[in-house]
Protein 1
Amino acid sequence: DTAVSQTPKYLVTQMGNDKSIKCEQNLGHDTMYWYKQDSKKFLKIMFSYNNKELIINETVPNRFSPKSPDKAHLNLHINSLELGDSAVYFCASSQEAPPRADTQYFGPGTRLTVL
Amino acid sequence: GENVEQHPSTLSVQEGDSAVIKCTYSDSASNYFPWYKQELGKGPQLIIDIRSNVGEKKDQRIAVTLNKTAKHFSLHITETQPEDSAVYFCAARRSERGFAGGGNKLTFGTGTQLKVEL
């Protein structure tokens, strides 16, 4: 009965590699997000998709490319990984259509370590 | 854009005491203020939220207050228990129909590490 799920939970890789993180939500929400949490626990939004359309792109390097095949999925592909990409990445979802908007539900996170 | 400041960064209390975490925001158009609890190794979980049309909201041992004039809001946890130990985040956003101007972007505070000691 998982609401927002991410795979993998842990990802260890070498600099320069390309990797993907997958996210799925079974809440029927129309909006999904990717957040990055750094080593100081600071949470910052990266992208947001509404009904498969990109609506927020927070000046993230173009090595990061989100893809939303349908409303329930938002995947994150990262090219040419750098040391500074090491962080925990969280997927989230919300229902933006009225009457109840705003509440975002987070996945368990993917800890990415770039060596 | 919105800027959210959160204090303190760490808070240690004795079991049974109260804990208060404070946040300020900069965008007077923000009208939705959630609080999230993040336990070690897990994603943030919503514990309570408040909208700008009310000044206070309570849910058992947790309460949130909002002062729109001063642009600050606070989380109050009473009768703290060891399982309350976690990182707490405040956040703010401007809720609008549609997405122009980044209206649905949630801006987080920097987090408070709460430790409840026996």
Protein 2
Amino acid sequence: AQKVTQAQTEISVVEKEDVTLDCVYETRDTTYYLFWYKQPPSGELVFLIRRNSFDEQNEISGRYSWNFQKSTSSFNFTITASQVVDSAVYFCALRIIQGAQKLVFGQGTRLTINP
Amino acid sequence: NAGVTQTPKFQVLKTGQSMTLQCAQDMNHEYMSWYRQDPGMGLRLIHYSVGAGITDQGEVPNGYNVSRSTTEDFPLRLLSAAPSQTSVYFCASSYLGDYEQYFGPGTRLTVT
């Protein structure tokens, strides 16, 4: 069975601080995808990134960066120089390649950026 | 393209009432699914479909029915609503084998 754990339920930082959201996953499959989604206060789910299990290269997109480490089954997300608009709930998710295309989500981390 | 649309946006039901949550997509996606979002639990898969006429259960299917008569539509039916079904419901779609799922805007359902 697959499982995703986001141990940080809520994080609150002051604007311009860097913040890292942790994601730990469990799967016996060797081929899978990992995702991060953002859910702003308006409620929709916004896709941020996808990473497949064969690609451990870290990725940077503007102020966002992702650190994928298979050795620790982690896929952490860092926001550099946070802004108030980054306030949202962030979900990490896992999808195995075989079988149904279902996404297994973590519990979510509520990030609040204070001005 | 409208993407994935869901109606209604908000709904209040009394215990025992029935209703259908609508989901439609105009991207010709084979795969469609329903998730529910509850505080502290992330999103959990209710039912999914890999094409017209084919549906299967997800993680939390009890109390919900689905059917897929067309590629575009994937309605979720609550036959007898219960307070435990108070949640936010998301519909998603994608091409089969594709990486990314496209989510609808969600339906907030309250059962009293």
